[in-house]
Amino acid sequence: MAQQLPVSASSEPELNKLHLHVIDSVSTNRPNKRKAMDNDLDALFDRFSSNLTNKLTTLMADLEKKVSDIQLNITTVIKSDLDNIKSKLAVIDVNQSQLFTDMESVKTSIQQQDSLQMCLSKRVDDVSKSTATHSSDISRMQERITNLETELNSLQQRDRAFNLEVNGIPEKSNEKLVDYYCAMVRFLEIESSANDVVHAVRVRPVNPVPGRPKSIVIKLNSRLLRDAILSAVRNRKGLSTCDLGITGDQRKLFVNEHLTPANKLLHRNVREKASAAQYRFVWIRDGKIFVRKNDTSATIRITTSADLRKIM
Question: Does residue 285 fall inside a structural domain?
Fold first, then answer.
């Protein structure tokens, strides 16, 4: 602050001198203060700049270290993952190679199976052709066997043309079967004697029934005599044990032609089939089996079991 000067009675030039002196003094002190301030600012800026530079350098160093650490970690992880991938790829390559090997093996096996199947198919075709041939041969053989069986049965039945079969006569020890025959012809009023009997035997049935006596087969010396006896029995509607003078409970007797086992079985099947189909008549004549549905229907001869289909 400028000092107030006392007012004097000096002249105007002195005043001017004083004024100039003050101005000069002020002008000289102001640049010095500004220069000091500038120097202080420069020093302060330099310190700030130095501190900032140091901090930036430290920060950059830390940043570079962290970046380097991150890069190292990433590189390590990537390398580890790449190693795992390479390891897995190697396993996949091994498995793929094994798969290719297995596929080749399967392919070879399939080719072998195809070849085997072709061989088997050819073999099956050969067997089928052979089977067809054999089937045809078997059919012919079966037909031939059937014909032979039928012929044999006919011969066996022809051998029984002189025979009678009597069922229902009780068995006794020391019995004389010819006596039963003589009693039967006497009752039927047929002229015959024991001399007409070639032989008489008890025959065990194919399927014996407990309590049922064995049948008696009587071979005569004349077929006409046999037929006469059968006709007389039919006219009398059968016989009984009392008719022959056999003591004990009265039993019904059955006198029939002597059939072969095959014809007996066929006769039984015919009776069952005829009964189911409501046929009224089933009879045997000269070892042959006949059926007729009623009085006006045609007579059907049954020769084999195949003829059973004729009964409808």
Answer: yes
Q: For helices 261-276 and 12-159, what crossing angle results, to 10°? A: 120
- Tell whether the torsion through CA atoms of 298, 301, 302 and 304 is positive or negative: negative
Q: Considering the domain boundaries, does residue 3 fall inside one?
A: no
For the cut 90, the answer to whether the pLDDT of residue 199 exceeds it is yes
Task: Give the span between the Cα atoms of 78 and 84, in whole angstroms.
Answer: 10
pLDDT at 38: 72
Domain that holds residue 277: 260-311
Whether residue 213 is found in the same domain as residue 225: yes
Pairing of strands 288-292, 252-257: unpaired
Same domain, 168 and 90: no
From CA 109, how far away is CA 115, in angstroms rounded? 10
Enclosing H/E stretch for 288: strand 288-292
Exposure class string for 25-44: b at 16+ Cβ within 10 A, else e: eeeeeeeeeeeeeeeeeeee
Number of domains in the chain: 3
Structure tokens at 178: 């010819």
pLDDT in tens, 7-52: 444 455 555 555 555 455 545 555 666 777 777 777 888 888 888 8
User: Is residue 154 in some structural domain?
Assistant: yes
